[in-house]
Design a protein that fits this description.
With about 475 residues, this protein is of the alpha/beta class. Helix content is about 35%, strand content about 15%. It is globular, with a radius of gyration of 22 Å.
Length: about 475
């Protein structure tokens, strides 16, 4: 990892400090050559990049700073990991090609039958690869997840993947700075997922476009490391180019427990640097927002964009007076089979999906098990739980979580992106309505004609039991 350099210059945000410490050279006032500490790849955004290297007869410059994961196209059928097989021909070819490329260039790959295979944004933090002050790149927009640990992570395009493989750098356009202060504390029954849906609903799906968002405030400080990952993961749904949370003791505890390539003494020394990585007191931001966590309720989306979301006890809002917004809302409501003024509670569902890089970590599964223990999934619902990685799956097995879920009628599956997006064989049918813990509810995201409602894991669990959308606070006593 590149050493964090702290300068005497004041009025620097945390974002600017990380960029400055990784700038190889300045190109112009808006662009730099940015060094990457870690580059993560998956099977669907890397093939053209490797082909480009081959055409130019270029090697991978730093194979040890690359990591590959097969996650988007892999099936999640509940078989032993040694027996996992991709049956869709195009997907199997894609994964096999990825395997060959990684082997050819000496890149570590979590392949289809790897015991620790999982979703890239779950695997990388849990094995200790993500540390404060890093720059982490990946051909996937939800690379913003790593800001939860004080690392600048963001998604890149295929041509950029090729450039990073060849040079370990990226031609990077600087972003603007946004600060989001969240005061107060989340009430019982609400989670980081509800908080981020609330924030996106307030600032809009393009409200943070062109910005790197830095979160602060008492509510953020009280979140666990995994809850912070949920928050940073979905910040891209407001258009953000990145998300950051300054490292604190929660960060250090999570990171230091997982690092395998540093001695305790080296970690202690690095921790001093990590804790010093924060915005200066007089740093200036291009935009600021302030929210009160105590007013956040369990949230659910009603439309086809993550900002089309409301508290579960509210009704779908009337059409906006803005023509474009009204047209978008009308289109979304038509697709979702809903109407303005309609209540979300009581809306029947066909499917529940608990998983994705947003909500498939062990804390999420513990929360789900607490809701469903001793109860049964409604007969009208198919409910799936897909853990975020092989490690999460094994831990859930050890803790009895998996058995609790199976006893309640949930399908307990192997890890992968699964029904977050329709790139594998976990696909909804046209018209099916799904309570989902994923990050996007776009048209066709979970299958052609499928209808997706985003919500927290506990909200999805409660919906599975009831057979319709419910306010989890009325199902479970929170104190």
């Amino acid at each position: 990892m590149k050493q964090i350099k702290h300068t005497n210059q004041t009025q620097q945000t945390m974002y600017r400090k990380i960029v400055a410490s990784h700038t190889v050279f300045q190109i112009d006032g808006q662009h730099v050559a940015l060094y990457a500490d870690l580059h993560i790849m998956n099977e669907y955004t890397s093939p053209q990049a490797f082909a480009g290297l081959a055409e130019k007869h270029l090697p991978v410059r730093c194979p040890e700073k690359q990591m590959g994961v097969v996650d988007h196209v892999i099936p999640t059928h509940p078989v032993a990991h040694q027996q996992r097989t991709i049956m869709i021909d195009a997907a199997a070819h894609q994964a096999a090609n990825f395997t060959r490329n990684c082997q050819r260039h000496g890149i570590h790959l979590f392949d289809v039958q790897d015991r620790e295979q999982g979703i890239e944004h779950v695997v990388a933090p849990e094995i200790g690869l993500i540390r404060p002050g890093m720059v982490v790149l990946c051909g996937d927009s939800h690379t913003t997840t790593y800001g939860a640990l004080g690392a600048l992570g963001f998604g890149i395009g295929t041509s950029e993947v090729e450039h990073v493989l060849a040079t370990q750098t990226l031609i990077y356009r600087l972003a603007r700075d946004m600060h989001i202060q969240v005061d107060g504390q989340l009430p019982g029954g609400t989670t980081a997922k509800d908080l981020v849906l609330y924030i996106i609903s307030k600032i809009g799906a393009q409200g943070a476009r062109g910005y790197v968002v830095e979160y602060g405030g008492a509510a953020i400080a009280s979140l666990s490391a995994e809850a912070r990952m949920t928050l940073c993961n979905m910040t891209v749904e407001a258009g953000a180019r990145g998300a950051l949370i300054a490292p604190d003791q929660t960060t250090l505890d999570y990171v230091s427990a997982r690092i395998k390539d540093m001695s305790p003494a080296a970690i202690a020394t690095a921790s001093e640097d990590w804790l010093a990585l924060r915005s200066d007191a007089d740093a200036t931001y291009d935009a600021r927002h302030c929210f009160d966590a105590s007013v956040v309720a369990p949230f659910v989306t009603w439309g086809t964009s993550p900002d089309q979301a409301i508290a579960i006890d509210n009704k779908i809002p009337p059409l906006s007076t803005t023509a474009l917004d009204a047209a978008n809302a009308t289109k979304a409501l038509t697709y979702m089979g809903l109407e303005a003024g309609q209540a979300m509670t009581g809306l029947p569902i066909d499917h529940v999906f608990i998983g994705s890089c947003t909500n498939a970590r062990i804390e999420d599964l513990r929360a789900v098990a607490a809701v469903v223990k001793g109860r049964r999934v409604a007969a009208s619902v198919r409910a799936m739980v897909v853990p975020g990685s092989g490690r999460v799956r094994e831990q859930a097995e050890r803790e009895g979580i998996a058995q609790t879920l199976r006893d309640a009628g949930f399908e307990w599956r192997q890890p992968g992106c699964s029904m977050c997006l329709a790139m594998n064989d976990d696909i909804l049918q046209p018209g099916q309505r799904c309570a989902s813990t994923t990050n996007r509810n776009f048209e066709g995201r979970q299958g052609r004609g499928a209808r997706t409602h985003l919500m927290s894991p506990v909200m999805a669990a409660a919906a599975a039991l009831a057979g319709h959308l419910v306010d989890v606070r009325k199902e479970i006593e929170y104190v």
